[in-house]
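Quiz preparation item.
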């Protein structure tokens, strides 16, 4: 028996000794009051995140417009984050390479954490703090945009990526939790969501969709046929 299977057996034994939930009618679900209260509190805490975003809607719109103008000129978006923020960054690049709402041409956008072989090689050879900075140096060009996502705003690998970008004349934008924080200070511009970390992260997805909304509108202004026909600019 392996150590892993032994640990699994111990976990299952503990679960077997847990008190059984009360019987419920078919189609119904038992929810204790503490769980229901926790869910309601979480949902209530989304409101401050939305209010924080609404107060910065002008910046989000400006990001969408500027990003569209740059990408129509052939610039590229790079994005990075850790954990859940990595998933959000990849969501953004998927919207640009694929599409958001309307049909349009694809634009060049790369999630640095999604390049797993390069990322693990860099982490192995140089350390995890350099996994994004080295890729910024490899892929970034003057005039590109780097979007960095972090609820804490303290991730060393994102801070190093921002530093590398500044040396290459790459514009840096940060989406973070409550500020002030180091990443917001290290980037050219930041949207800081004044909310609990989980709710701030949920707000990041809303912020990214808002940027995409302004992005598509700006692309349509400059090249409406691109959106309607899916042709190249």
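Solution:
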């Amino acid at each position: 028996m392996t150590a892993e299977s032994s640990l699994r057996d111990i976990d299952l034994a503990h679960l077997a000794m847990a008190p059984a939930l009360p019987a419920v009618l078919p189609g119904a679900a038992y929810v204790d009051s503490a769980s229901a209260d926790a869910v309601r509190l979480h949902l209530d805490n989304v409101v401050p995140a939305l209010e924080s975003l609404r107060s910065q809607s002008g910046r989000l719109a400006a990001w969408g417009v500027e990003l569209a103008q740059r990408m129509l000129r052939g610039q590229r978006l790079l994005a990075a984050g850790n954990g859940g923020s990595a998933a959000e960054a990849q969501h953004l690049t998927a919207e640009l390479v694929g599409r958001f709402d309307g049909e349009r041409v694809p634009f060049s956008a790369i999630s640095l954490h999604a390049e797993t072989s390069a990322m693990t090689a860099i982490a192995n050879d140089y350390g995890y703090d350099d996994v994004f900075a080295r890729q910024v140096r490899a892929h970034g060009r003057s005039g590109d945009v780097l979007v960095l996502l972090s609820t804490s705003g303290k991730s060393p690998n994102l801070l190093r990526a921002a530093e590398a970008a500044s040396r290459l004349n790459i514009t840096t934008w940060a989406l973070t939790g409550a500020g002030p924080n180091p990443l917001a200070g290290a980037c050219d511009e930041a949207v800081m969501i004044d909310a609990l970390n989980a709710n701030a992260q949920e707000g990041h997805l809303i912020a990214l969709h808002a940027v995409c909304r302004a992005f598509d509108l700006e692309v349509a202004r400059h090249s409406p046929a691109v959106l309607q026909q899916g042709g190249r600019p």
